[in-house]
Design a protein that fits this description.
This protein is mainly alpha-helical. The protein contains two helices and two strands. Helix 1 packs antiparallel against helix 2.
């Protein structure tokens, strides 16, 4: 009657596989398992690194957009301030002519004229 060794059936005249062959298969399986674990760890690390780089890139892009928006806002404010300063300089330059035309100008008349002059802005 044939004997069974695991799933392999062998005749009594047949010898079971040598121990070194079984050990070799187990060793081979263990190397493949270790290789699989290492490959998984490498891929996981690679995906983690790529994800971190994408997050950093998006963060830098967002920061650049914010900087550009602030620059545009500041340029608008600078333009507004320049126009107000130039308007005030123009208004003040009219004071010299007012005083030159009316050397006898009182403080009250001068105040009213300046209120009208600066109210127009």
């Amino acid at each position: 009657m044939p004997k069974r060794s695991g799933t392999h059936t062998y005749e009594p005249t047949e010898m079971p596989p040598p121990f070194s062959l079984i050990w070799s298969r187990k060793k081979h399986h263990s190397y493949l398992t270790a290789l699989g674990v290492v490959m998984f760890a490498v891929l996981l690390t690679l995906f983690g690194w790529i994800g971190a780089e994408l997050i950093r890139f998006e963060s830098e892009r967002h920061q650049q957009r914010q900087i550009e928006q602030v620059k545009q806002d500041l340029d608008g404010l600078a333009t507004t301030l320049k126009s107000r300063i130039y308007a005030n300089i123009f208004s003040v330059s009219g004071v010299k002519s007012l005083v030159a035309m009316n050397p006898e100008l009182t403080q009250e008349d001068f105040s009213r004229a300046m209120a009208v002059q600066f109210k127009e802005q």
